[in-house]
Design a protein that fits this description.
The structure holds 2 protein chains of 2 kinds. In chain A, 75% of the residues lie in helices and 3% in strands. Chain A is mainly alpha-helical. In chain A, helix 15 runs antiparallel to helix 16. The relative contact order of chain A is 0.09. Chain B is built from 30 helices and 6 strands. Chains A and B meet through helix 5, helix 6, helix 7, helix 14 and helix 16 of A and strand 1, helix 5, helix 6, strand 3 and helix 28 of B. Chain A: Belongs to the complex I subunit 4 family.
Chain lengths: 513, 688
């Protein structure tokens, strides 16, 4: 496709910068990191501009055999493009958020972030299954370090929990990958996506991948690492964790589970739906009673990710496109919410909700942004949150009205816990003299939040920019999984007075979805 | 032109909102109010165009929105007769409320924000009524919900206002759950969310069944009922009504605009907009009728005994919405829209009049501390009188009358003509109750002797706390009574309140508040007489609506054929209510408290709003928090973590006694495991 290796360049720049940071002064390290992430953002935009939504499935491909079947194989489709864009967009914001908050071991910190960026982009761009595995698993190492070194008081427990959960899943996934490459005779992901594995084996393979992706998602009941990890992570760590790392699970389902094991996916849809429905209600209720801001947002993330999984396993266009938009939207919105928490944490040094109150009186500009992101999290139409949530739920309705019903209760519970949070933080009388002394957003903070706000509204009002690149890929995926599409429970019968043509359309509809 | 009407308020809201205090009060107010008056001036010609038959229904495309397979949703602005009615209601009341707020909010430190919210609300409401597809309608639906949330909680330092704002949003979301599921179901059945396409295909789907939550039921009934749940939330129908009375925590102009004239009627509008589909689902229509009639009666009974002037009007609104719904339910969509139209004028008038009273009485809202105000604030008095004439339906059969005379009578007649005799009688009974509580309000407020001395607000005013009040804005010092909406001790009737003026001199409101009262008074007088021909008559109706609602000529004819007694019933009810109120509040001074004592159980039941809030608190709010805590501590901490990671850790520690090593070296362990795995993988790959 493209002769210029832009993907390798996007990996190379932060990698080189990560090494350079280690040998720089704290001040220089910050600027190196910011520069490298901004260059990557610019390259990401070039990638977006150069991506042809009507072109081949895989674009910007690079292939360099290393040894045996293992190859430096890169290439992206629409899904990968969008998630890479999300990563490169959030990364400079993370560097900016850490500008003053991080004071110890700055060069190492910046280096860890740049390394994370390399590994994230690598995960989304990898076309060799083992290359994917390396990026996918290694991506967590800098995150361990970020939590473990620059985290809060209980950081060791948090990163240890994170590790334990992840370990089991990765091992099972690795074994499954070995079996797959052996059976299919290829490590090339596009080949594997087209290979029909025996239906019996599919279930085991699906479960092995599920073990890894469910933890990353995270799905209930393997979600308990997330609140601890978020609470202990520094602000920028939370942003990347919520913004990009949580998307690895969804990407995995989309890239591996669905196209490689369509029959197993269809068979086990009930499991996904059940866990997701439980997650929406359970974690939303838990979010309602949190007294720690970051924990509350972390629990809300679990509920939002459940909307992603039901959309993906709805086996229809609205579901899958909705799930992708929820992933992008959640990356932006929960990232922004963690930034908002960071902004007030930097002033009062507590995440305890009860210590705040009346913030909108002293920080009116902050209150506006916080409100916008709160509303986006609730899924108010006009923000990105609505588009994804709506499509995803609509998709799931076509398969299971129960699932759609139970998960749609999330819009009530979500409104309850987010507005309750907003009320306790922003509204009411100014709580204390400390709160009264809090200055409004600085210019730097404004520049972190304003771009996210802009994209959240853009995605809410004109999501077409983000849906066009993936449209054909969704079509290809649907064509691939069509044979296993589960039947819905609605099955409307044709009406009495319908003209013949219409009857046909509505009858066909019930089955097709 | 429709784009200008819709987007000008948005532009004004953005300018005033972002400019906020940097912009200054006067520019922010001038921009928003000016924009609304322009929108209003442009809306009336559209409405008149439909009245005269010269305008054509059309859709003005804006841009694509969500395209996902067959679901193709675009931003677009639909203009037809139904929209044109809503356009004039929204822009007229909104423009007048903007103007009124110049006076009412003049002491508030946060005026640009207030006006920005008002304009934002107007934009969202206009998007709702111009929607050509259900998703854009939902956008407007949620947008007005946001604006309502922001405006109820406008005085955000008041805990009661915050609680009311959250309650309004969350209860509305319960309705939205139904609305969303309805949209999903409609897309599944019809393969589209475009309203004209749905309405065209709906009649063909009669007799179809669909699976929903494990049941099988008639397709159109399921879909209509799901959508109706949404309408119940927005229009505060029985069961989902609890947020509306609490919404009175917002500034009074907000109550007039959002919680009386426009937003709360969105549910009625939705049912009328989708009337061809509802017509094909008779079972759903029966539910609409029953819920409407039940709400109508319920809210009126509660309105009888409230002491807070705004709450009386709030329950009155709830009750009048019930009228509109059962009108729609019996198939009289024209009558439903007509009552929506006239109600917007007289209810906005009553609210703004109440605001003027509250303004004059130094933020006192408890009617037990009013009395004798007609001489102090005569213009407000007359505006309120006109509003009361309109809502109670003063008029002479065969001659003419105030706005409500036409629209309410039409609803009662329509219910009778369509065979819903019981519902029609509920309508008559509620007409009597409406008359009673409306006159009770007037008598307590404007007649009798002043009882101002008992009011803390008045005491504050007299003793010179004026400045500190002004700083906080209006309504700020809500009584405990006002917050809970009822008296802590109902045994104390009106007679125990100290009499006298306490030396206080109420003053008439400024011109900016009186002009809207005057304009709305005109509407309350003439809206019924001027427009009943087009809205409900068998000759004028079809020509005016031209298919934008399912107007039944047959029913319109039948309405004229009902017995004379039915036609006169509303007038009789109105006079009886007036006489009873006169007897209880003017002629005899202790009849009210005696009656309350006699019917203590019923009185307490009504006063406490049928205990809905207590019930919901017990059923939903407390369990939600309890389950949240249970899942968190018992689920996450005691079960998942205990047997999951912590259990694994315990095993690891017991096994290797190397906890420290594990805790510090886990990254390396992890990297090591991964490396081994990779080595194995690569070896395998090369070997294979």
């Amino acid at each position: 496709m493209e002769t210029f290796p832009i993907l390798s360049l996007m990996l190379g720049i932060p990698a080189v910068a990560a090494v350079a940071c280690l040998f720089a002064s704290p001040r220089d390290a910050r600027w190196i990191a910011l520069g490298a992430t901004l260059v990557d953002l610019a390259l990401g935009l070039v990638l977006w501009a150069g991506f042809d939504p009507n072109g081949a499935q895989w674009q910007f491909q690079e292939f360099q055999p290393v040894f045996g079947r293992f190859a430096w194989a890169l290439g992206i489709d629409g899904f990968a493009l969008l998630l890479i864009l999300l990563s490169v967009f959030l990364m400079p914001i993370c560097i900016g958020a850490s500008w003053r908050a991080i004071e110890k071991r700055v060069p190492e910190y910046m280096s860890a972030f740049l390394l994370t960026e390399v590994l994230m982009i690598g995960t989304f761009a990898a076309q060799d299954i083992f290359l994917f595995y390396i990026f996918f698993e290694a991506g967590l190492i800098p995150m361990f370090l970020i939590i473990g070194i620059w985290g809060g008081a209980n950081r060791i427990y948090a990163s240890y929990k994170f590790f334990l959960y992840t370990l089991l899943g990765s091992l099972l996934m690795l074994i499954a990958m070995l079996y797959m490459t052996r059976t299919a005779g290829s490590t090339y992901i596009p080949d594997l996506m087209a290979y029909d594995f025996p239906v019996r084996a599919q279930t085991w393979l699906w479960l092995a991948f599920f073990a890894s992706f469910a933890v990353k998602m995270p799905m209930w009941p393997v979600h308990t690492w997330l609140p601890d990890a978020h609470v202990q992570a520094p602000t920028a760590g939370s942003v990347i964790l919520a913004g990009v790392l949580l998307k690895l699970g969804g990407y995995g389902f989309l890239r591996f589970s669905l196209p490689m094991f369509p029959e197993a996916s269809s068979e086990l849809t009930w499991l996904i739906f059940a866990l997701s429905a439980v997650a929406v209600i359970y974690t939303s209720l838990v979010a309602l009673v949190q007294s720690d801001m970051k924990k509350l947002i972390a629990y809300s993330s679990v509920a939002h990710m459940a909307i992603v999984t039901i959309g993906l396993f709805a086996f229809n266009r609205q579901g899958i496109e909705g799930a992708m938009i929820v992933m992008l939207s959640h990356g932006l919105v929960s990232g922004a919410l963690f930034l908002c928490v960071g902004v007030i944490y930097d002033r009062l040094h507590t995440r305890e909700i009860a210590r705040y109150g009346g913030v909108s009186s002293v920080m009116p500009t902050f209150a506006v942004f916080f409100l916008l992101f709160t509303m986006a999290s609730i899924g108010l139409p006009g923000t990105s949150g609505f588009v994804g949530e709506f499509l995803s739920l609509m998709g799931s309705y076509q398969v299971s009205t129960w699932t759609a019903f139970l998960c749609t209760t999330g819009i009530i519970l979500g409104a309850a816990y987010m507005l309750y949070l907003y009320r306790r933080v922003a509204y009411g009388e100014v709580k204390s003299e400390e709160v009264r002394a809090m200055p409004d957003l600085t210019g730097r903070e404004l520049w972190l939040l304003a771009p996210i706000a802009g994209v959240v509204l853009w995605m809410g009002v004109y999501p077409e920019s983000f849906m066009r690149p993936m449209r054909n890929d969704v079509g290809r995926l649907l064509a691939r999984i069509e044979r296993a599409t589960p039947h819905g429970d609605s099955n409307p019968t044709p009406g009495r007075g319908a003209p013949a043509a219409e009857q046909h359309a509505s009858a066909a509809h019930g089955g097709a979805h | 032109m429709i784009s200008v009407i819709v987007f000008l308020p948005l532009l004004a809201a953005v300018i005033a909102g972002l400019g906020n205090r940097n912009l200054g009060n006067v520019p922010a107010k001038a921009i928003t109010t000016g924009a609304l008056f322009v929108s209003c001036a442009l809306s009336w010609p559209i409405f008149l165009g439909f009245l005269t038959g010269s305008a054509q229904a059309h859709v003005e495309p804006v841009m694509p929105w969500i395209i996902s397979g067959d679901m193709d949703v675009s931003w677009g602005l639909r203009v037809d007769a139904l929209t044109s009615v809503m356009l004039v209601v929204i822009t007229t009341v909104s423009a007048l409320v903007h103007l009124y707020s110049w006076g009412y909010m003049s002491e508030d430190p946060d005026q640009p924000r207030f006006f920005a919210y008002l304009s934002l609300f107007t934009f969202a409401m206009l998007m709702l009524v111009t929607a050509d597809n259900l998703v854009q309608m939902f956008f407007g639906w949620e947008g007005v919900g946001l604006a309502s949330y922001l405006l109820i909680g406008f005085w955000y330092y008041k805990p009661s206002a915050n609680a009311a704002a959250i309650k309004a949003f969350v209860v509305n979301r319960v309705g939205d759950l139904g609305f969303m599921l309805g949209i999903f179901g409609i897309y599944l059945v019809f393969d589209t969310v475009s309203i004209p396409e749905i309405l065209a295909a709906a009649p063909g789907m009669t007799g179809s069944t669909i699976g929903f939550l494990g049941m099988r039921a008639d397709t159109l009934t399921v879909l209509c009922l799901l959508l109706f749940v949404g309408a119940m939330g927005k229009s505060a129908q029985l069961g989902l009504h609890t947020w509306l009375p609490d919404a009175m925590e917002g500034p009074t102009p907000v109550s007039a605009l959002i919680h009386a004239a426009t937003m709360v009627t969105a549910g009625v509008f939705m049912v009328c907009r989708l009337s061809p589909m509802f017509e094909a689902a008779p079972a759903a229509l029966a539910v609409v009728t029953a819920v409407g009639a039940a709400t109508c009666l319920f809210a009126a009974t509660v309105g009888l005994v409230q002491n807070d002037i705004k709450r009386v009007i709030a329950y009155s609104t709830c009750s009048q919405l019930g009228y509109m719904f059962f009108a729609a339910g019996v198939g009289a969509y024209g009558a439903a829209m007509f009552h929506l139209f006239t109600h917007a004028f007289f209810k906005a008038l009553l609210f703004l009049g109440a605001g003027s009273v509250i303004h004059a009485m130094h933020h006192e809202q408890d009617m037990r501390f009013y009395g004798g105000l007609r001489r102090s604030i005569p213009l407000t008095f007359w505006a309120m009188m006109i509003g009361t004439f309109a809502i109670t339906g003063v008029g002479i059969y065969g001659v003419g009358g105030f706005a409500g005379f036409y629209s309410k009578d039409a609803i009662i007649e329509a219910a009778w003509a369509s065979g819903w005799l019981g519902v029609s009688m509920v309508g008559m009974l509620v007409a009597f109750l409406t008359s009673f509580y409306s006159w009770r309000l007037v008598f307590l407020t404007f007649f009798g002797q002043p009882r101002w001395a008992g009011s803390e607000h008045i005491q504050h005013a007299v003793h010179g706390h004026h400045t500190s009040d002004a700083h906080h804005g209006h309504d700020q010092e809500a009584h405990p009574e006002a917050e809970h909406g009822d008296s802590p001790d109902p045994h104390h009737g009106h007679e125990d309140v100290p009499h006298g003026t306490a030396g206080y001199h109420p003053h008439e409101s400024p011109l900016s508040m009186l002009i809207p009262l005057g304009v709305l008074s005109l509407g309350a007088i003439a809206a019924g007489f001027a427009f009943h021909h087009a809205f409900i008559e068998p000759e004028g109706g079809p020509e005016f609506w031209r298919g934008s609602i399912a107007f039944s000529e047959h029913l319109a004819h039948a309405m004229h054929e009902v017995p004379l007694l039915v036609k006169l019933s509303a007038t009789i009810a109105m006079i009886s209510g007036l006489l009873l109120a006169y007897a209880m509040y003017i002629r005899s001074r202790d009849a009210a408290s005696k009656t309350a004592d006699t019917f203590r159980v019923a009185y307490d039941f009504f006063l406490n709003k049928w205990y809905f809030d207590e019930l919901y608190d017990l059923l939903f709010v407390r369990p939600a928090f309890a389950f949240g805590r249970f899942f968190w501590h018992r689920g996450d901490e005691k079960t998942i973590d205990r047997f999951g990671p912590n259990g694994a850790a315990w095993l690891a520690q017991a096994g290797s006694r190397a906890a420290a090593k594990l805790q510090t070296g886990y990254v390396y362990t992890y990297a090591f495991v991964m490396l081994i795995g990779l080595t194995a993988a690569v070896t395998w790959a090369i070997a294979g």
